[in-house]
Amino acid sequence: MRLPPKHLIQAELCRRSFYYFLQHFWHTIIPDDPVYNWHIEYLCEELEQYAFRVKNREDKASDLIINIPPSTTKTTVCTIMFPAWCWAIDPTMRFITASYSGELAVDHAVKSRDIIKSEEYKKLFGKVTIKADQDNKKHYENNSGGSRVATSVGGTITGKHAHIIIIDDPLNPEQAVSDTERKTANRWMNETLSTRKVDKKLTPTLMIMQRLHEDDCTGNKLKKDPDIHHICLPAEDGAGVKPAEMRDKYVEGLLDPVRISKDVIIEEKKNLGSYGYSGQYDQAPAPEGGGMIKDHWWNYFDLSEFNDQSVTWNFVIDPAYTAKEKNDPSALMAYCYHNNNFYVADVAEVWKEFPDLCKFIPEF
């Protein structure tokens, strides 16, 4: 039996699998070798389902939120490669893509266009070409009616309608601490972007971001639509992983042990502090005043206040029995409870093997 030409086989494999397409076109826009952690294929398969429903003009099942740490290839997968693949399966699709920065949104759109204009894409999907009279970095169209418009959050998109809306990082960390910036972003998404759909029953909104604040765009959307399809993949395993079965994919409690190793996590905790790390990496932003334990509950005291008091000091230890700083430390605390208050006299974290830890305890 005579097989079809190789490029036709490659084209069909790409159409059938977004993940295959991503691997095939990776070096078209990225010179570095890829690190294919399991979550990349998983996200590709999830996005596929949305694209095929749009291709068949079926009602959307739900909008989608993806919360995932930085440096996990989320933008390459969701905002750059995905629209280019969608045109390979249905060049009539229209996109609106947005980010907190107009310059960043344009950069994403240009990289997608670079794929579409590449010789390999032309060889596999030659019928898809960018129209010469509408080939702008912010807005380009193909010869089948498909289009892509790139904008910033808060930007003007009057008169534009999309089959798929993609929002990639609607806020940056600096904007997220501003009540005004957060409210502006949430209002734009709820009142402006939501009206830019070809068909409200058909058009899904796909939002990809790292968590930055309790009331960021993810928090706002979850309050309005608690049943939305929510994928949450924190850097470290925990109760926040969604869907819960994805926890089985974590390796030694880590989402991506190659790029977000224990050493990287230790460094990022130092750089970002506990508040920044809990949002951007653990996808669990805490209130600025504290979560279950509030800032204003804490005061300082002098141990000499207890010289004439009859109190019992308690010592608690959460041992880890390791001297390797890439692992969790042993934690120690001395405290007492007196007159309806807890008094913490001292705390320590140490990396020691069991024998050395036993020697350290009396010193503490």
Automatic annotation (TrEMBL):
It comes from marine sediment metagenome. InterPro entries: P-loop_NTPase. This is Terminase large subunit gp17-like C-terminal domain-containing protein.
